[in-house]
Amino acid sequence: MSTLMLNGNVVRTLLNMPEKWHGLEDVETRYRQRYLDLIANPEVLRLFVVRAKIVSSLRRQLEDRGAAVVKKPNLGSTILFDALRNDTIDVAIDYSGTIWATVMKRDEPASRSQTIAEVSRYLEEVHGIATLGSLGFENAYALAMDRGRAVELRVRSIADLARHAGTLTLGGDPEVFGRPEWRRVRDAYGLGAIRTRGMDSTFLYGAVRDGEVDVITAYSSDGRIAAFELVVLADPKQAFPPYDALLLAGPRAARTPQLRAALRPLVNAIGDDTMRAANRSVDIDGLSPVLVGERLWHQLAASRVPRPPDRGSGRPD
Questions:
Q1: N or C end: fewer C-beta atoms under 10 angstroms in the chain?
Q2: What are the 10-residue block averages of pLDDT along the chain, 317 residues in total?
Q3: Tell me, what DSSP letter sits at residue 299?
């Protein structure tokens, strides 16, 4: 028997929970016991919630063009990618950083534009997958501080943390500090002296707001950044890998001009601020991801409605 934190409540389980990063390596187990993957791995849960919002908008876009859409929910990144390249599914959303590290096995830093270009070329040449474009937002790792605390210490970027490193505490999900992304940031900016504190990801944003820690590891599109009056620190050395949301079409779908045309309006249609607002509706306001996705769709549809021509006074010239 073991215990876990679920939606702020401590609950008991009859069987021991799997170890977070190594207990669910088997693809079959991760697929058939998806709930364990979502509970054990905060990053998987984060991606699941974000995708749920976007998929609702994508589905409406296709249905409005007369397509019959069948959703395949609860697929992890590895299973999702395999299904896409095998034409089991036609359209998917994945992140440039996930493909870069997990599929391409690349670990060297690269700019956002370079990452998208190389990922797109690799997917096309090796797997026949078309990258239709970025949706317009990034859901990357970042460091965030309370706005007032950042002003007090004159911190605007991660580089500014170095002169205070010996007196600061950085909060993060325990697994983050063992990941290559954090080691690269730590070494690039000379943050070896900063104290790290592992915390449940549910409490991170409140902890930095309330002064329990000075800095936290965050996700750049999280709605709690604005709600808790936090500021994301700039990353001038681009030490954190980019995680642009990419709209992908499988080999068969990529050869369908009508499908590509139907999806084209979604390219660069969802900016960072729009995504943060959508995330806030779920994280702070408690709305369901599906409902927020529907609202997002209506917002996007309204922004594409052409304005009527200005008819002036109505008198002929």
A1: C
A2: 42 46 43 44 53 59 60 64 89 89 86 94 97 91 95 96 96 84 92 93 89 94 89 93 92 90 87 84 77 76 52 38
A3: H
pLDDT at residue 55 in the model: 59
Q: Which of 198, 102, 179, 103 is nearest to 141 (CA)?
A: 179
d(CA 151, CA 133): 37
CB atoms within 10 A of CB 286: 7
Q: Are strands 141-146 and 215-219 parallel, antiparallel or unpaired?
A: antiparallel
Q: What pLDDT score does 65 carry? A: 62
* Per-residue model confidence (pLDDT) at position 310: 41
Instruction: Label each residue of 236-279 as H, E or C.
Output: CCCCCCCCEEEEEECHHHHCCHHHHHHHHHHCCCCCHHHHHHHH
Backbone angles phi, psi at 34, to 5 degrees: -60, -30
pLDDT recorded at residue 21: 38
Helix (H, G, I), strand (E, B) or coil at 83: helix
| Cα separation, 230 vs 143, whole angstroms | 10
Given 192, 209, 232, which residue is the final one in a domain? Answer: 232
What is the length of the chain? 317
Count the neighbouring beta carbons within 10 Å of the beta carbon of residue 104: 15
Instruction: Tell me the C-alpha distance between 70 and 201, whole Å.
Output: 32
- Domain holding 215, by residue range, is 141-232
**Pair 213, 267 in one domain:** no
CATH of the domain at 220: 3.40.190.120
Q: In this structure, are 82 and 216 located in the same domain? A: no
Domain check: are 265 and 125 in the same one?
yes
Tell me the whole-structure pTM to 2 decimals. Answer: 0.67
> In this structure, what token pair is assigned to residue 271?
């900016």
Q: How far is Cα 96 from Cα 140, in angstroms, rounded to an integer?
A: 10
Same domain assignment for residues 30 and 173: no
Are 185 and 251 within one domain? no
- CA 111/CA 139 separation, integer angstroms: 15
Residue 12 resides in a domain: no
